[in-house]
Amino acid sequence: MKQIVSLFVLLFVASFHMATFAQADSKTNRNMKTDKKVLVTFFSHTGENYAVGNITKGNTHIVAEMIAEATGGNLFEIVPEQTYPKTYNACVDVAKKEKEAGARPAVKGDVKTEDYDVIFVGYPNWWGDMPMAVYTFLEKHNWQGKTVIPFCTHEGSGLSGTERNISATCKGATVGKGLALKGSIAQNSRNEAQKSVSAWLEKLEY
Ligand SMILES: Cc1cc2nc3c(=O)[nH]c(=O)nc-3n(C[C@H](O)[C@H](O)[C@H](O)COP(=O)(O)O)c2cc1C
User: Fold this and answer.
1) Cα–Cα distance for residue pair 17/31, rounded to 1 Å
2) How far, in Å, is the centroid of ligand 1 from the Cα of 17?
3) For ligand 1, atom 22, which residue shows the shortest CA distance?
4) Distance, CA 183 to ligand 1 centroid (Å)?
5) Which residues are within 8 A (CB) of 51 and not within 5 positions of it... i.e. 6 or more apart?
6) How far, in Å, from the CA of 47 to the mean position of ligand 1?
7) What SS3 state is found at 181?
8) Which atom of ligand 1 is nearest to the CA of 128?
9) Which has the least CB within 10 A, 17, 38, 130, 175?
């Protein structure tokens, strides 16, 4: 009898852990709900920013960590070789010029997206688009057969047309329903941001 009770306790504890904490199998690195390999890539800017003051961790970075934590995915930050100005107005000017020129600023390092099944792509809304460095990163890879899921932080413009732009850039990928979250909420109201992220992932079944 004692052994049966112990077995039940063990099974209960194991299932609780699986449901609550172990979203990724640590050996295969696969999401335990979907059995898919998940990568969470993001671009995020620190320094002075709209509605949040001077920040040391970018708004999109915060959301990316929430997604990685919930899905068991690996994180990869898209870092431009040339850093953007830390003052807001100067950054806005550089970003505007890059967008108008269709620039493709060089980015540091890389990750083999081809090794993953599902790739979340996160970015701040810059001038109704993704920062040009995100295009540099996306255009380096082969997206055939992959699932790409956008998420963006913004201060009013939402995703703008970026889901469409990602579809056009990541040829052959299925592009999932994106998340748009206000950057000031990600930065200053973490519980609220976490709720939005969890509800969105739930709908996507991750
Ligand atoms: C260069 C630049 C351009 C921006 N353009 C927009 C915009 O067009 N629409 C909008 O809603 N927010 C815009 N924002 C605000 C950012 O999208 C928002 O603050 C975002 O959360 C920043 O994320 P990050 O901290 O991860 O870089 C802009 C911010 C910057 C720095």
Assistant:
1) 14
2) 38
3) 124
4) 8
5) 155, 182, 183, 184
6) 12
7) strand
8) 8
9) 17
Residues 6+ apart with CB under 8 A from 152: 60, 122, 123, 124, 125, 130, 158, 159, 162, 178, 179, 180, 181
The span from the CA of 150 to the CA of 36, in Å, is 17
Q: Which of 45, 50, 66, 83 to mutate to test the pocket of ligand 1 (most atoms within 8 A of CB)?
A: 50
Residue 118 in tokens: 């599902």
Does 92 sit in the ligand 1 pocket, CB within 6 Å? Answer: yes
Q: What is the pLDDT of residue 48?
A: 92
Instruction: Give the CA distances from residue 174 to residues 119, 124, 136, in Å, rounded to whole numbers and listed in that order.
Output: 10, 21, 20
Q: Amino acid identity, residue 4?
A: I
Task: Look up residue 120 and give its DSSP letter.
Answer: E
Atom of ligand 1 nearest to the CA of 88: 31
CA-based radius of gyration for the chain? 19
Residue ranges in the chain whose pLDDT is less than 50: 9-22
**What does the alpha-carbon distance between residue 75 and residue 156 come to, in Å, rounded to a whole number?**
26
